[in-house]
Amino acid sequence: MQYKWISSALAATICATTLASAVPLVQGGVTDIQVEIRDNGFAPSRITATLNQPIHLRIHNSGHHIHEFSIPQYRIYTRTLRPGETSDVQFSPWQPGSFVMYSDPLTDDQPEFGGKFIVANGK
Description:
- It comes from Alicyclobacillus fodiniaquatilis.
- It holds the Pfam family Cupredoxin_1.
- Keywords: Signal.
- The protein contains 1 helix and 10 strands, in the order αββββββββββ.
- It has one helix at residues 8-21; strands at 25-27, 30-38, 41-43, 46-50, 55-61, 70-71, 76-77, 86-91, 97-103, 113-120.
- Strands 1, 2, 3, 5 and 8 form a 5-stranded mixed sheet that branches. A 3-stranded mixed sheet has the order 4-10-9, with no helix packed on it.
- The longest helix is centred in the N-terminal third of the chain and has 14 residues, at 8-21.
């Protein structure tokens, strides 16, 4: 499966627009969503995607502490992000439903905070 990558300037504009409007932006068949990790949670804390449609998550740690981003049911795990660091994840959701996304930089039994990743059928 191949994806077309967008130029850096256009991607930055898309991410800024998406964050400002809190509405996913579809560009070339890929839904781009900016996820901001703050010290008290994700913004947005609820992400909606469409079954079998490519999604690009640009995850940025805007907090003052280290954080991670994961959606375990989709085997999505970023590296530990220091303040100011960004990670990009792109995939096509293959199962509809509501899934937990969370941050757990200490990899202990209790997630730091969480949110919802919802995959709709799109029919």
